[in-house]
Specification:
Helix content: 10-25%
Structural class: alpha/beta
CATH architecture: 3-Layer(aba) Sandwich
Radius of gyration: 15 Å
Largest sheet: 8 strands, mixed
CATH superfamily: Class I glutamine amidotransferase (GATase) domain
Shape: globular
Oligomer: single chain
Order of helices and strands: EHEEHHEHEEEEEEEEEH
Strand content: 25-35%
Number of strands: 13
CATH topology: Rossmann fold
Number of domains: 1
Length: about 200
């Protein structure tokens, strides 16, 4: 079962439709115990770090257990931010802490939010198989992830070069919205669904 976590802050319909285009059906999960049957987990996200974490708190324990067992996990947009330990957007609010690091606000020298199409510079990655340097993806965010360790699978330049894809073991996350990114986005989702 491919679990799509519905915690009131996600782009559920678009993700469900994109997975359907790829021949896969997702199941909306609204309670932590529903994750028990999950073979794969997708955590979408739109909005603010603090309220998202408040809504996700009930999922924390089961989510961390599933990831510890190696269940493939994909965080999208705000989903890449909440897997870190915290964010400048909501000081003092604890993230999921799956990956060490925090989120920073873009500098005032750039237009915020970073919204629209931008290219990525992919590195070696299971999630980005078939993605070429310069492929464009759709972004909407004012904060960006700053993870610790060797987990950055792609970067994007928007006044600062920031990590746009994180990958470690069975944990994958993108700052962009693959479900809104045309063929390259579908390729990223397909790669995840085939892991």
């Amino acid at each position: 079962m491919i679990a799509l976590i519905d915690y009131g802050a996600g782009n559920l319909k678009s993700i469900s439709n994109a997975c359907g285009k790829l021949g896969e059906k997702v199941e909306l999960v609204t309670k932590a115990d529903q994750l028990e049957k999950a073979d794969k987990i997708i955590l979408p996200g739109v909005g603010n770090f603090g309220p998202a974490m408040k809504s996700l708190e009930g999922f924390r324990e089961v989510l961390l257990e599933k990831i510890e067992k190696g269940v493939p996990f994909l965080g999208l947009c705000l989903g890449i931010q909440v897997i870190l330990e915290g964010s400048e957007e909501s000081p003092g609010v604890r993230g999921l802490g799956i990956i060490k690091g925090t989120c920073k606000r873009f500098p005032s020298s750039v237009k915020i939010p970073h919204m629209g199409w931008n290219s990525i510079k992919p590195g070696e990655s299971k999630l980005l198989g078939g993605i070429k340097p310069g492929d464009y993806f759709y972004f909407v965010h004012s904060y960006y992830p700053v993870p610790e360790g060797n987990v950055v699978a792609a970067t994007t330049d928007y006044g600062v070069e920031f990590p746009s894809v994180i990958e470690r073991d069975s944990v994958f996350a993108t700052q962009f919205h693959p479900e809104k990114s045309g063929e390259p986005g579908l390729r990223v989702l397909k790669n995840f669904l085939e892991i």
